Amino acid sequence: TDVMLRSHFGEESMTKGVLPALNFLMQANRLNSMQLDSGGILFTLVEEKVAAKMQGLSPEMMMVYHEIERAGNNGISSGDLKKKTNIQQNTVTKATKELDRRSLIKRVKSIHQKTQKIWMLMDLMPSANITGGPWYTDNDFDHEFVNEICKIAESQIKDDWEKNGVPTSLQSVERRVGSSGVSQEALTIEHIKQIVNRLIFDCKVEEVAVVHGTRFTDPGPYYRSAAQGISHYDSFTSLPCGVCPVFDQCQPGGVISPEACVYMEQWWEVEEEGAAEEMGTDSAHDIEDLIS
Q1: What is the mean pLDDT of residues 146-172?
Q2: Per-residue pLDDT tens for 5-24?
Q3: Nearest-CA neighbor of 80 among 110, 111, 118, 108?
Q4: What is the phi/psi pair of residue 43, to 5°?
Q5: CA dihedral over 50, 56, 61, 62, signed as positive or negative
């Protein structure tokens, strides 16, 4: 920043040497400047090969370039470029065409604005907000891929519960999907949670409360296969009693009792938080609606 430069070089050197150098670099397109909210100026160095491509660009084209640069990996539409630069649309179109020809910017497709031109710098990768993330291929929702991930998650949760009598953690599902090799892109824990949420809404699995310790070491949440014959979400399906390690010792009025049960208290808090969203949702929701 200009403040850092003044602090390093001093006021006299800043005026006599640094400012002329900054102006020279900016005229050679080797330096960008941006006004900060604090009132200072931030300078960023431009790569030599990029600066060479900028030679001969008009002021209007440079304005368009800098607006596209500010948009980052979310990109910016031609219409928004016109609004932000206050330049006529035909001038904006001419500028983007020339910047594209020089390989300074590129056009990307957006799942939200399929008919609009979205521009971003050539070396940036579009954000998930633009591409839709791993669930989209060429801007189209990939139902086959999503269904394959769902099968892996459902199979693991079902096997763990029905064969071994233990619930499955979200982290365990993440590890299983990661080791399956189905996805060419690394899926985050949030991606896996979206998949499991789809299974919950389809009444194939349900979340359960567990007591963390030697048996349940992952942070969770934990899931089990849904009871057979249930065609809608029911709060009773997630009661912690089914996986309680001291269930046999629990009785009303006892040392371990329903009225003093910490597991029930945790379950009730989870139910209160999720009831409004989950109980009123159609079980046949398509995952595209759930994760969009």
Answers
A1: 92
A2: 888 888 888 787 888 888 87
A3: 118
A4: -105, 135
A5: positive
HSE-CB for 37 with a 13 A CA cutoff: 0
Contacts for 34-43 with beta carbons within 8 Å, 24 or more apart?
A: 34/70, 36/1, 40/1, 40/2, 40/3, 41/1, 41/2, 42/1, 43/1, 43/2, 43/5
In degrees, to the nearest 5, what angle opens at C-alpha 26 toward C-alphas 22 and 28?
A: 120
> What three-state secondary structure class fits 209?
coil
Q: Is the dihedral of CA 123, 128, 130, 133 positive or negative?
A: positive
Determine if the pTM surpasses 0.70: no
Q: Kindly tell me if the per-residue pLDDT of 287 is higher than 60.
A: no
Sign of torsion over alpha carbons 177, 181, 182, 188: positive
